[in-house]
Amino acid sequence: MELPMLIIYSITHAFQGRDLLRQMGIRAYVKRTPRTIDPSGCSYSIEVYPEDIDRAEQILRSAKIRVTGRHMGESDT
Fold it and tell me: What domains can you pick out in the chain, each with its CATH number?
């Protein structure tokens, strides 16, 4: 199962965001964004479980971590 992901431009912000989400009780994982989603291959994503995606994005945006996109997993393709 492919988890939904929030696309973050910077690896530094991706890891900061992951740590923040984990502090808030959200399971979060950093991975390079697949080229099928970001052809430039320059971004990283934070994967979270589907039930946490909205809350996770809100937390990141509140912390001024720029979310450049969202991919909802297998159903998006």
Answer: 5-72 (3.30.70.1530)
